[in-house]
Structures are given as C-alpha cells and as structure tokens.
Amino acid sequence: MGMEGCNKVMEEEVLVKKITQLAAAIGELPSLIPSPEVNALFSELVVACIPPSTVEVDLLGPEVQDMRARLIRLCSDAEGHLEAHYSDLLATHDNPLDHLSVFPYFNNYIKLSQLEHGLLARHVPGPPPSRVAFLGSGPLPLSSLVLAARHLPAASFDNYDISSDANERARRLVRADADAGARMAFVTADVADLTEELAGYDVVFLAALVGMAVEEKAALVAHLGRHMAPGAALVVRSAHGARGFLYPVVEPEEIRRGGFEVLTVHHPQDEVINSVIIARKHAAPPALAADADAQVNNGRLKAQCAVAVSRPCLGCTCEMEARAHQKMKEMAMEGMEA
Are 143 and 205 in contact (CB under 8 A)? Predict the structure, then answer.
C-alpha cells in the first residue's frame, strides 16, 4: 500500500472513531427532544459526516455496522422530534406556510426538491406528473410542500405516514391555505399495506428513513414494484460515503431487483445530505423484464453500468464545513433561546 493509500485508511479510521464517540454520547442522552445539548451533538455529527468521504460504510466491520444501525435509528428519532417541534411552532401562526423558513434546514429541502425535480424532468420526459405519492412524509412534510409550491403547481399529493399524530400535525400546516389544502392529503398507513392505491400515481417518493435496514428497504421496493403502474417513476433517497452513518444506503441493484429500471444516481456535493436515485417501473411484465436483464448481463454488459452516477468532488469540503459549522452555531443559539 502506497502513502496515499495509508493516508486514506488513517483518515477513515479517524472519522469512524469520531462518529463512534458521538454515537455513544447521543445514545446516553436522556431525551432526543430539541435542546442545546441534543442540537450540539447532532450538529457535530452532521459536520463530521457531510464532507465527501471515501469511506464505504457497507464494508466496515460488524461492530461498526451495529453502531451505525443504532445511530441511524437515533437520527430517525431525533429528526421526528425536531420536525414535530417545528410543526407545532408553525401551527401557532395564522398561515403556517408563510413561515416555513424558520425550520433550520429549510434551505436544504429547497435544494433537494429542486434537485429531484430536475432529475425527474431530465430522465423521465413527458407531461408533468399530476398525481404524486410521498411515503414517509412526517409531521413537517417540507418536501411535498416545496415541490407543490415551486415545481409541480398542478399536481395533487398524497402523503403517507404510519403515525396518525404526524399526519394530524401536517394537516394543521395547510389549513389556512386553500390551494395547499385542496391538493394535499395525509393518510395514515403502513407502506406495506398499500396495493391498489399505488397504481394511481405518476411518481412515488420513498423517504430515506422508510425501511432502515437493508432487508426492510429491499422488501418495500419490491412491494412498490409489484403495485406501481408500469412506466411510473420512483424517487428513492439514499446516502453516500460518511453520510451513510446518518441515513441508509440504497444500492441501485436493490432497485433493479424490485422491478425498476434505474435511470440515474446522484450524490450531492453540498450540504444536501441525501443521494437521489431516479427509477422507472418496467413497462414489460416482470418475467419479460427479468429476461431482458438476463440478456443484457449475458451479453457482457451489466445494465447498471449504463446508469449515470454523479459523485461528489473530494476537493469541495471547506465551504461545506464552514456552512455546517455555521448551522451548528445557529442550532445551539436557538436551543439556548428556547
């Protein structure tokens, strides 16, 4: 191993050690409800994970994998508390949608929604989608709200979440806006229980934290593949590099096995944490689609090799770290004021 390889290994070991220490500290917190201590620890975790990294989380040892699985679940719980807190805060306004920018990461959702819409328009050409489903919308459905207001002004959105409390919070946010109230529905359901409903959507968004284990995510994607309409688009949020300590990593091959054609995979270079996979339900029956995949693979060219993958530039870390540190200070100050 050359000097460059040794440096890479050392950097990854330092990163994993830091994240392990932060995970231990977060695991000892008495509560994940927003507070100065909670905000500071999670902000430090994001600062550590957000710069582009060569670490491949799926190849790490079993102890690190166990830590990572626990940490992702802690991140999920903390994110739920954070969104519930701000949803309740927004609900105190006459028109909550006029004040969405109070959420600390609102700008990230604007960028992520712009990215996803742009990728959809580029890789799934045709009329704009008229019916959209968002699976795992939560108490603060910013993705749907931003997409509806800025990118898909004529589409209706069905937002699914397994928590009735989350849906009730989300409904309060659109009560004073006639347009959003008419176009947004909030449904309490487990994704695994949705069948005929899925066939009615042009696009289905799968939130990053719906199905956190690899097996759970694969089962959900396969379920969507069985019930979505042929030709419908699927948008899956994933993670890349060290960001895989915050969110589950979804491999394109898992999407293909679920009955979809993977059109593109994008790994953001900025503070938008989630990677984005754009896929399309096979128009051919599953058996024919499987035969086509086998023919491609036997023809000495794997189908996934044709997928465009945008990877982060490893030299773009300074500006991202500065923005992340600034966000950490803002969150800490906000916690002190609360």
Answer: yes
